[in-house]
Specification:
By secondary structure, the chain is of the alpha/beta class. About 40% of the residues lie in helices and about 20% in strands. It has one domain (about 5-130): HUPs (Rossmann fold, 3-Layer(aba) Sandwich). It has helices at about 15-25, 40-45, 55-60, 80-85, 100-110, 130; strands at about 5-10, 30-35, 70, 90, 115-120. The protein has a 5-stranded parallel beta sheet with strand order 3-2-1-4-5, sandwiched between helices.
Length: about 140
Amino acid sequence: MKKSMAFGSFDLLHEGHKHYLKEAKSLGGYLIVIVARDINIEKFKGKKSKNNENQRLDNVKKLDFVDEAVLGDKDDILTVLGKYRPDVVCLGYDQKTVPEERLKNEFQKLGLKAEIIRAKPYKPEIYKSSKLEKW
């Protein structure tokens, strides 16, 4: 069975996130979701999350199509690639935390033949975290 991996903060878990994760699941068969650590959200987004990492992890774990959900690494967010060795990494349509070139380099270092696929947006005019945060 192919393993797919998805990354995100999932602070305000919404239909756009669910669509992204379902698409990631469809690319493999076993879906591993890496939930960003609080410290990394601050580092990458320049602000604190509304929900702490354990609340966000619990919310993702409750999704019946997620096979496994874990917190990411505090120091190197790509450490999980070596541990879980996914066949596919699905990125959100607007995800920019890690450049695809860096992912490809990491695959090469680890001897992974994984592919990177960008998820399609799902009603981004409605379901985009930055827009929903303002409500």
